[in-house]
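Homework help thread (please don't just give me the answer)

Our assignment gives two proteins as sequence + C-alpha cell strings and asks us to describe the second one. The first is just a warm-up. Here they are:
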Amino acid sequence: PEKEYLRYVAGVWQEENLLAVPKSRRMLMTWLFLCLHLWAALMRPNAAVFIQSKKQEDSEFLLGEDRLMFVYRQLPQEFPWPSLEKAMAGKSGRGYSYLRFANGSYVAAVGQGPDQLRQYTASHVYLTEVAFWEWAEETFAALLPTVQGGGKVTSDSSAGPGFFDSFMHGG
C-alpha cells in the first residue's frame, strides 16, 4: 500500500547497514522487510539472506506460502526474475527452511541464538520480534562482524522490555 512511512523505512534500509525499528501490530514492517530481503536475494547475485525469529518454525513460516513465497509468486511474470531452483520444506510443515534462486542467492530460515550464523557470511539478516528473544543481546553481538564486513542487519519488534528496548533508547 501507498504509505509514507513504508517508503521512508525502505529508503533508510537501503542506506544503513544496521537498522532497528519498533513496530505495532497495525504496521506492515514484517511484510516490508520480507519484501526488501526478497528483493536483495533476487537482485543481488550470490546474496546470503537469513530470516531469524525466536523459533526456527517461526522463521520457516515467514519464508512460506503465506508470506515471502506469496510475495514472490505475485511478482510480474514479464520481468525476468531469477527462478526458484530449490525450496526445502521446514520441519513444521508451515513454510520453508531454505530457498535457492537461479542467480546463486538464497534465503534461509534460522532460529535465535548467537551461534546460528557464525559459520556463514551473511549479506542480509532480518531479525524479527527481537524483544521476545531469550538471547537477543548475544545474537546481536554475534552479528556485528556482518555489519562491519558490509552486510546488513535489520531488526524489528513490537513493544517488550529487555535488550531491544534498551537498544532502541540508547540504554
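The one we have to describe:
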Amino acid sequence: EAVTTSLQAGAVGFAVVAVFMIAVYLVPGAASALALALYVGLMVILLAAFEVTLTLPGIAGIILSIGMAVDANVIIFTRIKEEIGGGRSVEAAIKAGFEKALSAIIDGNVTTLIAALVLFWRGSGTVKGFATTLAMGIVLSMFTALFVTRFILRALYNLGLKNPKLYGVKRDRKPFNFVGIRKFTFAIPVVIFAIGIGAMVMGVSSGRGAFNYSMEFMGGTSTNVTFNEDMSLDQISEQVVPLVEEVTGDGDVQTQKVEGGNEVIIRTRTLSAEEREQLNQLLADHFGVDENQITAESISGVISSEMRTDAILAVAIATVCMLVYIWFRFKNIRFAASAVLALVHDVAVVTVCYAVFRWSVGSNFIACMLTIVGYSINATIVIFDRIREHLKTAGQKKDLAELVNESITQTFTRSINTSLTTFIMVFVLYLMGVSSIREFALPLMVGIVCGAFSSVCITGPLWYMMTAGGRKKQAEGGR
C-alpha cells in the first residue's frame, strides 16, 4: 500500500510540477517537462535492470534526485531569461544560459554525489538504499538537464518558437538588503534551538526521554491475535489499531496479517504486564477473541546501535568531503565553512521539531536527515557560484555587502521555485501516502523550508561576515 500510494503521489506530483514549470518558464518549461518524463522513465528502467530493492529511504533518494533535476533546469532557464533581458537574441541566450549555468550545476550535483558515494561506502542497510537511488538519480538528472533539455529546447526553437516572449524576460531587480537584516535572521534559529533544548530537558525530566524513539530503535512487544473472522487491512486499521493506541498512548503501532488464516501480528512499544492484560481484555470485549489465543513476546530494535553509528559516521565523513570539495572549487575556506554551518543549521532545526512535536524517531528519521543533507547544500552552491562570478568581474572594487545582496537577489527566484517544486512533490506524498510515508514527508517539508531559508538568509551573510573580517585584518596589517 505504501509503495502504491507513493507511486500515485509521484505521478500526481510530477504532473503538478510539469504544469508549474510550463506556466513559469513557457517553452523552456515544456522542454524540461519532456526531459523530466524521460528521466523518470530511465530511472525506472535502471531500478529494474539493477534489481534495486525500493525502501522508504530509497524512495527519498529518488524524490531528492527529481528535485535536483528540476533545480538544474531552473538554473538554466533563469540564466536564459537574464540573457534575453540583457538584450541577446533567443538563440544566443540559450547558448549562454547553458554555458553560465554549467558550473553551478556541476558543483551542486558533484557535491551531493560525493555525499551519496560516502554514504554507500560507510553506511549500511537503509542508508545504502538511499545512497544507491540518489547516486543513480544524480547522474541521470545531469544527463537529462545538460543534454536532453538542450536538445529539446533547440528543436522547439528550430520548429519556429523564436519569439523572446515565449522564453520569458528577467529584468534586474533592486537588491534586497539580506546582509543588513542578518541579526534578525540569525536570531530566528537561536530562538528555535532554545525551544528545542527546553523540550528535550522537559522530556528527560518527565521520564519520556529527549526524543520519541520508535520500536525500530527501542524494540517493543509483538502480540499475536487470532480473530474469529478474516479481517481486512482497512478493518484492522479502523477497528483494532485505535484500541491498541488507547492502551499504549502511542501512535507507533504496526500491524501485519499472517497469510492463510485469521492471525494478526500487532507490534507496539514495550508493554508492561498490566498493559498486556488490558489489551487482551479490550480485544476479547470488542471482537470476542479467546484470550488463550493471544500470545505476546518481546522484540529487539531492528535498527541496531551499530547501524546508527554507521549512519552518523557516514554523514560526518560526507560533510567533511563536501567541505573539502567546496574549498577546492571555490578556492576559499569561507565558502565551505558557511555552507557546512548552514547544513548543520538545517539538520538541527528539523531535529528540534522531532523533539518538540514528539515525532517518532525511527528509520524515517535517518532517511529524512540524509535527504536534507543532500538537498540543502545544492541551493547554497548556486548562490556561492553567483558570488564567485561577481568577485571575478568586480574584484575588490565593489562593496562586499552590495555584492552579496546582489548575488542573493539574482538567484532568489531560482531558490524559491526549486524549493517550491520539491515541496509540491513531498506535499502530495504527504496528502496521499499512508501513515509511514506521512511520518517521513512532514519533517522533510520542514527541512525543505529550512534549506531555502538558510541558503537565502544565512549562508551569504555568514560568508560576508567572515570575508569582511578577513579584509579588515588585511587592511589593518597593511597600515
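TA reply:
I won't write it for you, but here's a hint about the kind of observation we're looking for: The first helix runs from residue 2 to 49.
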